[in-house]
From TrEMBL:
Name used for this protein in its record: Uncharacterized protein
Superkingdom per UniProt: Bacteria
Organism classification: Bacteria, Pseudomonadati, Pseudomonadota, Alphaproteobacteria, Hyphomicrobiales
Amino acid sequence: MSLRSQALAVLVANQARAADQSLGPSDRDAAIFNIDEVQAMLAILDCMKPNLRPKEARQIAARIRALLEGRKGQPLRIGCP
């Protein structure tokens, strides 16, 4: 399974959790935050070329790390370099 397929599966699961009214508000809020993270990672993955050079791979890894380490509630600008 590709990284993109895995991210899409996580996105679908979090969308279901965000809509699940049996969960508490904090659980639904966490799912919504996770949706934003996954969508940002998908945007990064969409920019990837099939045959990355080591420097490009490091740049993408750094962008994903920045996304995962970002503070909750702070939007990240994601776009192709």
